[in-house]
Predict the structure.
Amino acid sequence: MVSVAVVVPGTSERNASCRRVVIIPVDVQAPSARVTEIARAVASRQLRAADVCRAALGRIEQRDPGVRAFLHVSEAHALARAAQVDAALDAGRAAGPLAGVPIAIKDNLCTRFAPTTAASRALDGFVPPYDATVVVRLEAAGAVIVGKTNLDEFAMGSSTENSGFFPTHHPLDAGRVPGGSSGGSAAAVASGMAAAALGSDTGGSVRQPAAFCGCVGLKPTYGRVSRYGLIAYGSSLDQVGILATNVPDAARVLEVIAGPDPRDATCSHHRPEAFSAALEDDLVARRMEGLRVGVPREYFGDGLSEVVRRSVDAAIAKARRAGARVVDVSLPRARHSVAAYYVIATAEASSNLARYDGVHYGARRGAAGGIEALYCESRGAGFGSEVQRRIMLGTFALSAGYYDAYYAKALRVRRLLRDDFTTALREADVLISPTTPTTAFRLGEKLSDPLSMYLADVYTIAVNLAGLPAISIPCGVDEAGLPIGLQLIGPAMGESLLLQAARGFERMLAPTL
C-alpha cells in the first residue's frame, strides 16, 4: 500500500482560507478504479466521506471556471449527504457500494435538491418535486451527488454548444468541444471533478463525449436502466448512461442504477447482475481467449480520419494477438441510420416537447396577448435554434400526407437495422468500431452546418435504433494529443459480456488502469 496526499481547500467564503491534507490509501497492485477505491476507503474508515466531498468540491472550484462543466454545484446537499454516510458508518451500519463517491448528474435528470433545466431557458430555475429513479438509487448506495452538469439543450446536440446557458470546453483544449450532449458529464470526469457521472444517450450522447474527452462511456441496453425522471427527448431511444475513468468503475455504477422500476413501463424486468464480479482478471483473460470480435466493414469507409482508423486497427491487432478471433461482419442498412434516426428522434421530440407551452410549468411569456401569444412567445423565447429546428422537422414528419413517407418508413428501416445487428451478433460476440470519425473539433466549427454536426454520431446512432448496449473506451491520441475512442457493441442484455470484452481491451491498451 502507498498513500497519496490530497490538499482539501475550503469550498465557500466561510472556509476558503482553510487548507488541510487528507491521506488517501491506494493499493498500487489493484486496478486504478477511482470509484472502487474511494468506496473501499470510505467503507473501511480510512477516509471520511466528508473529506472526499470537500476535495471534490475544491477541484470544482479550482477547475470548472475554465471548463464550465457544471450548471449547478450542490455544495450544501453534497456535504449533508457525505455527513449522513459518515454517520451511518460511525454507527456500524453499511453505507452502500458507492459510499462517499462524488458523482455528477446530467441536468436532464430530475432532482429535488437542485434545479433541473435540461440546459434550456424554457426550464430556467425549475426545481422538480421528485428525484429520478437513478438519483434515488445512487444516494441509497451512498453516492454523494456534487452537482448538475451542462448539456446541449434537451440533449439535442453533439458538442454542448447548444446549451441555453453557455458552452462547455474540452478539458485538454479550451478551444475545442467536449462532445455532446453529455459534454458536461464527460468533462467533469475527465478533469477529475467527479469520480463518475451520469449522462443520457439517445444517439451517442454518452459514448461520443467519452471518446472526445478520453474516458469510458457506457450506454446500457434500452430498458436496462429506468428512465423515470429523465426529461424525454426521444422516448424509444433515450437511455441513462455512465461516464467513468475506467471499465470497473462503470460496471460498479451500473450495478447500482440498473434493474426493474414499476414507474417506467419500458424498463426491463431483468434483475441487476454482478457486473463487477465478471471483471476479475482470470474471467477477463478467459473471455478474451477465443472472443469473436466482429468488424463491420461499413464503419471503416469514407469519412473516417486516418489517425482514428490506425488507432482502432492497432487495437484490433492487439486483440488478435491476445487470442481473440477477428471476423468480418456486415451492417448493410447502417448507411441509413442517420436519416432514420433524425426522423424518429425529431418526431418523438416534437411530441415530448409539446408540454413546454408556458401554461403548466417553466418559462411563461406573452400571457397578456391571449393563448396563442402565450404559446408562441413562451416557446419562441424558451427554445434555442437547434431545438426549434428538431421540433419543426419532427412535426413535419408526423403531419398528414407525410407520416407514411417519412416516419413509418423510418420505423421500417429501424426494424431492418435491428435484423442486421442480430445477424452480425450471431457471427460475433461483440462488434468493434471507432466511436467517432474524428477527434474533438473546434468550438464553432460545425455550428453553421447541422448535417456535419449530425455526422459526428454516425457510428453511435445505429446502436440506439437497435436498443443494444455499447461502450466507448480510450484507444490512443492523435497528433495534437486529443483522445480517440473505440466502441464495442454487445447483444441485448449482454452487459456482462460487453464489460468483460471492454475490460480486456482496456488492459491491453492501458495496462495501468
Summary: The chain is about 40% helix and 15% strand. The chain has three domains: 2-259, 279-333+405-509, 340-404. The two ends are 17 Å apart (CA to CA).
